[in-house]
Structures are given as C-alpha cells and as structure tokens.
Amino acid sequence: MIALHVLVTGGAGFIGSHVVDALLAAGHRVRVADCLLPSAHERVPAYVSPEAEWLREDLRDPGAAARAVEDVHAVSHQASMVGLGVDLGDVAEYVAHNDLATAQLLRALHARGFDGRIVLASSMVVYGEGRYSCPEHGDVPAPPRTAADLDAGRFEPRCPVCGGPLEPRAVGEDAPGDPRNVYAATKLHQEHLVQAYARETAADALALRYHNVYGPRMPRDTPYAGVASIFRSRLAAGEAPLVTEDGGQLRDFVHVRDVARANLLALESTATGPFNVASGEPRSVGEMAHALHAATGGETPVPQVTGAWRAGDVRHVFASVERIRRELGHAPAESFAEGMREFAATELR
Q1: β-strands 242-243, 138-140: how paired?
Q2: In the prediction, which pLDDT does 346 show?
Q3: Predicted local distance difference test score (pLDDT) of residue 299
Q4: What value does the mean pLDDT take over residues 3-7?
Q5: Cα separation of 20 and 290, whole Å?
Q6: How much is the pLDDT for 199?
Q7: Summary mean pLDDT of the chain
Q8: SS3 helix, strand, coil % of the chain, rounded to 5?
Q9: By C-alpha distance, which of 281, 310, 282 is closest to 155?
C-alpha cells in the first residue's frame, strides 16, 4: 500500500485520535485539523501524537478549510458535534459544526481539484428506530413513540398495522434514513453532501455508520457524551448509573480500536459503502451498565433503572455487519467483556 497524506478532521477527539494512531502505525502521513470545541476539550489532549502535523482550525471558516486540505491525498472526516445535546436550542450549533463545516470542507476540496478518497464518520442515528418484524405483517416501520406511551411505561413500539408486538432485527445499510433528532438529521445531511461531491467529481467516498462506540479517551459526562461515558462518569463519582426506560433498549457497543481499524481499511480500499461499524452482538443498555459495574469489582453502586425517558431516543437499533465483513474484510477484534474491564479502569478525559 502506497503511503497516503491523510487529513483527519476532529483528530484530537475520542474516535479521531484513534484513527490518527492507526494511520500513523500503518505508515501514512497525517495532518490533524481540530477546532478544540470547548464542549469536547479543555485543552489540547496529551494523547495527540507528536508524529502528526497539527492545525487548530475551525472548518466553518473557508480559509481554515483551505489550509486543512492543502496537498492531502485522502480525508478522514471525523469532526462533528455529537450526542443528543440539551434541547432544540442547540440546533444552530449542530447544523453549523456538522453540515456547514462539511460544506466548507467540500468546497475547499473542490477548489483544489481533489479527486482522492473521503471517509465520513456517520452514525447509526440516521436509521432512527431500527428494523422490526411483525409476526403477521413481516417487516414494518416502527412509528415514533408517543409521550403518553412512554410516561405509562409502554416502551416497545407496536406494529403500525395491527398494533401487535414487534420483534427487533439487525438493521442493514439499505434501511431508509429516518433521523429522529437534530444530531441525526445533521449526520444524514453530511452523508448526502459527501455523496453529492463524489457524484460530481472524480473523487470517491463512503460513510461509516458508527454504532455505540466506547473505550479509552472517551469524554466525561456531558449532554453530548454517549451512554457508556455517562455511566462510567457516575461510577467514578461513586454514584449509581441511572438507566432510562426499563433498561431493555438494544444497542451495539463497539470498541473504539475496532472503529479505527474500520477507518484504516476504508481509506485503503475502493469500496463505496455505506457500512455499519459495530460488533454484531446486540446488548441491552441495562446489560452494559451492569457489565461496567461488575468490571469495577462490584465496589461501586449498582445501576438503577429509573423508568425515565429522553425525547429523541429510539428503542432498539443494532447492526448487521455482513456487508463490512464481506466488502472491507473488517471483523471486530475487541471482546465486550475485556473492553468493559479496560473502560472501567480508564480515566475519562
């Protein structure tokens, strides 16, 4: 494989920094562009590799985007404002950091005639609810859950035809987009922008749809953090993880090193995607909370199921990983049990 000069946007972040490390280990030259968003960073993280070129740039600025893309052969676009946020008051910030920044990045690439590889960090949130099957009506879309049902503890979506129970299934990449919160809408829009660039230029691109990523360098508990980080932060503070709904929500928890390996394979391939990046082993949120608690040696408070719910959350979404196995040769290497033990012992940044 010829060594590439790769721009990693968001390369100081949780996932981006692991992508940087994987690229450097594979012999590629890396430029990091990161604006060090205050909600994610208090300072330049100590783990940022000195082997990478570093640019503190905000890609929403056209000049910053132009400087970032100069002379690169490929782009790993990891920069993103993540999580559900606080409320709709965050909508402009999500659109600016995710969609406007992506548009400026693509405009800068177009201005220099870029025809290389773009790998976009997308998310399973573009699916909305996952895939469901009704015993009578087969595969059916799950309608949005109502506040009245959630308040009453009726967390499982029902068949839109007969009102009967639904069986959750693994969602494949051919599922239609159905974003159900602002963050999800911006991620799907990022995919569309990158696809449009690839269609109208000689460049090629793919999206990697990350499922619930966890592992070292994960940020602390903020409104923008993932559920694993929130639980880990509470355990570190001597507090019980608070599990929403009944804890039965199914997700796919994938280790960040497996995600970094998927990015490396994607950058070195000619596949077009999109691809789910996941473990292929769905687990409930409650199971994850108890596994993390057990990994602390049982000396921390036991997770508590609250019955509370969050607007914008979906009930079940977990991945089919057949396509990424077949087309990229990617298979997860990190086990859930070992990953939880490592994560329990990791200091959050």
Answers
A1: unpaired
A2: 83
A3: 82
A4: 95
A5: 32
A6: 96
A7: 93
A8: 35, 20, 45
A9: 310
User: pLDDT digits over 265-294, tens only?
Assistant: 999 999 988 999 999 999 999 999 999 999
| Residue pair 80/100 in contact by the 8 Å Cβ criterion | no
Give exposure, 102-138, as e/b (b: 16+ Cβ within 10 Å): bbbbbebbeeeebebbbbbbbbbbbbbbbbbebeeee
Phi then psi for residue 316, to 5 deg, are -130, 130
186: number of Cβ within 10 Å: 26
In order of 26, 52, 162, 325, 326, the CA distances from 331 in angstroms are: 18, 27, 38, 6, 10
Beta strands in 198-237 (DSSP E): 204-210, 212-214
Residue in the structure block whose two tokens are 């089919």 = 320
Looking at residue 82, its pLDDT comes to 84
Complete DSSP assignment for 49-81: -TTSEEEE--TTSHHHHHHHHTT-SEEEE----
274 upstream amide cis, omega within 30 of 0: yes
Q: Are residues 7 and 74 in contact, defined by beta-carbon separation less than 8 angstroms?
A: yes
- Which residues of the chain form beta strands (DSSP E)? 5-9, 29-34, 53-56, 74-77, 117-123, 131-134, 138-140, 167-169, 204-210, 212-214, 242-243, 250-251, 253-255, 275-277, 283-284, 304-305
Quick one: which of 332, 238, 231 has its CA closest to 287?
231
Task: Report how far residue 270's alpha carbon sits from residue 273's, in angstroms, rounded to the nearest whole number.
Answer: 9
What are the Cα distances from residue 107, in Å, to 38, 56, 196, 282? Answer: 26, 19, 12, 39
CA 26/CA 166 separation, integer angstroms:
45
Q: What is the DSSP letter of 155?
A: -
DSSP state of 144: P
pLDDT band at 223 (very low <50, low <70, confident <90, very high): low
Measured CA distances, 345 to 128, 292, 333, 348 (Å)? 32, 10, 19, 9
Structure tokens at 120: 């976009």
User: How is residue 126 written in tokens?
Assistant: 């573009």
Looking at the chain, the whole-number percentage of residues with pLDDT higher than 90 is 81
3-class DSSP state of 196: helix
pLDDT tens-digit readout, 44-68: 888 999 999 999 999 999 999 999 9
